[in-house]
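Protein in question kept in full:
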Amino acid sequence: MARDERATLLELYQALPEEQFQSLKFLLEERVPAGLLLPASRPELCRILLQRFPGNSLRVTAGILQQLGRFDLIQRFQLPLEVQILEETPCEPNGDTPKVRGDLTSGCRPGEIPAPPLNPRRLTEKDLMQIAQRLGKEWQEVGILHLGLERSRLEQIQEENPGNPVLWNFEMLREWWRRERHKATVSQLQSCLEPARLDPRILDFLQSLHRD
């Protein structure tokens, strides 16, 4: 049984693109120390989850996949779901649906997996560097007013990377990226930067990432 669980986990993780595998590790930080997760390869992550959640690693993984919108993998590997229906009642006449704990499903059929929501593209470090190369001298204004970062942190970034404005921009964006974790999507950054006074090519570049 343990061997089947390990094989399923490994095959599942191999099916994730690198971006979503990293997002999965970010989301697992609520249950597993980040020091173990961040450097972990796919086989190492399997080992960590099997050790920390014996007999329950597939259920834990299924919960993270729900947050990533990968219902196709949940169905393909027939993963168990932690879904609890508060009231197994038919739909209301006005079309309202019964309440579900955690808002993990909708509709009237308990245990049914809903249609996958839109799966927003999470930014990668490569994306951040390409954006950093396009940002101008207004990087501190962008960081404070539009990304919600502290001035002291921006000054620290500048001191740690003397004379390298591109790295200032990159580290600023990465600071926001780390804070937002799985919410650091193309759409989210685009929404933050739209009110800023930036080169229009930056927003054009972000728009192009939606098509990748």
